[in-house]
Amino acid sequence: MCVSISQVSRLRIHSFGSSCCERVHGWIKNSSSLKLLDVRASSVDGKARWIRRNVSTTTQGSRSNTKSSVLGGTVPVTRIIDEKSRTKVQPFGNLQQRLAQDKDLSKLLTVIVSDLETTGLHRKNERIIEIAAQDIAGGGYSTFQTLVNPGVVPITNAHIHGIRNDMVCRPEVPRMEELIPIFLRYVESRQKPGGYVMLVAHNGKSFDFQFLINEFNRCSYEIPHNWLLLDSLPLARENMKSVEPTVKLSSSLEALADYYSLTREGDAHRALSDVLLLSKVFQKLTIDLKLSLSDLVLRCHTASDISAAMAKNKKA
Fold first, then answer.
1. What value, to the nearest 5°, has the Cα angle with vertex 228 and ends 222 and 232?
2. Which GO terms describe its molecular function (predicted)?
3. Phi, psi angles (nearest 5°) of residue 53
4. How far, rounded to the nearest angstrom, does the alpha carbon of residue 94 sit from its chain's CA centroid?
5. How far does CA 309 lie from the centroid of its chain?
6. How many helices (H) and strands (E) does the chain have?
């Protein structure tokens, strides 16, 4: 059954995926009978449009058959890596400390991997032009992806992600102020009752989360207080350092994919492709680093943490 919500007088809640490249957690290609609403903001011919159609997708990644410490809690707390070589972790705020101590943490926390593409690199002046997310536990409606209309802000880095102005500057592609309620509805649909959300992004603290906070503020929204923001880049650096202490190995998503022998689905630097790859990389990192959910929570930031750091850097 397809569920819809109204917003800004014309949009509906859309599918959380793209018919041309969506794969849910597990990368399984066999279809189930589950029907999703598929709404794309781009197509293979480069013409942007919103489409309502039924598609089939696979749902896999349940807590019972996943080896990741994030999903199953199967990795013991004991450490194999020399503690002296590990980055010293300082808990941020009371929320993280309190949540990390909760014995029912796995019943409260939803882990969502995210990625976004932008018109340029300036966190304040540029705009988000694509956003994707995936609930790492999988299941129905687990994936979200869409292009975003940046309005009058031109795309200056199309050579990086391949998204052109003519693909997004169209009336049928939602603007950020129209999309935020839909994205919030997606996250709420994945959230456990009374629970919290951990949003994961690679280089998120310096890039993705700053863009997201600025866009929410610009559209007069706030990042929900029950969201925790986790940057997976420090985890990657820590793991690569433990692999080869004397050599600085790259911690980019591409380098990690090569290290773990993972195959990318779709083009690099497109939001959904990066999300699907990061979902697998992130689980590999938590296993290699022997990180429990509590460990990850203590490494998270809140939106207020990042906003304060942004304000401090602006004054510097």
1. 125
2. 3'-5'-DNA exonuclease activity; metal ion binding; nucleic acid binding
3. -155, 160
4. 24
5. 21
6. 12, 9
Instruction: Residue 172: give the domain boundaries.
Output: 113-307
Q: Is residue 168 within a helix (H) or strand (E), and if so which, with residue range?
A: helix 165-168
Q: What tokens does 276 get?
A: 């699907």
CA–CA gap between residue 126 and residue 211 (Å, rounded): 8
| Residue found by looking up tokens 């052109």 in the block | 164
Computed over its alpha carbons, how large is the radius of gyration of the chain?
19
Tell me if 268 is assigned to some domain: yes
Tell me the pLDDT tens digit for each residue of 83-129: 444 444 444 448 999 999 999 999 999 999 999 999 998 988 999 99
Q: Which residues contact 31 (CB under 8 A, 6 or more apart)?
A: 56, 57, 58
**CA atoms of 41 and 36, how far apart (whole Å):** 16
Q: Within a domain: residue 313?
A: no
Residue with tokens 């990192």: 285
Cβ atoms of 182 and 11 closer than 8 Å:
yes
**Domain for residue 187, yes or no?**
yes
269 is a catalytic site residue: yes
Question: How many structural domains does the chain have?
Answer: 1
In angstroms, the CA 219 to CA 302 distance is 19
Q: How far is CA 90 from the centre of its chain?
A: 23
For tokens 């976004």, what's the residue?
A: 116
- Exactly one of 14, 25, 161, 269 is catalytic; name it: 269
Q: What is the pLDDT of residues 37-77, one digit of tens each?
A: 333 333 333 333 333 333 322 333 333 333 333 443 332 22
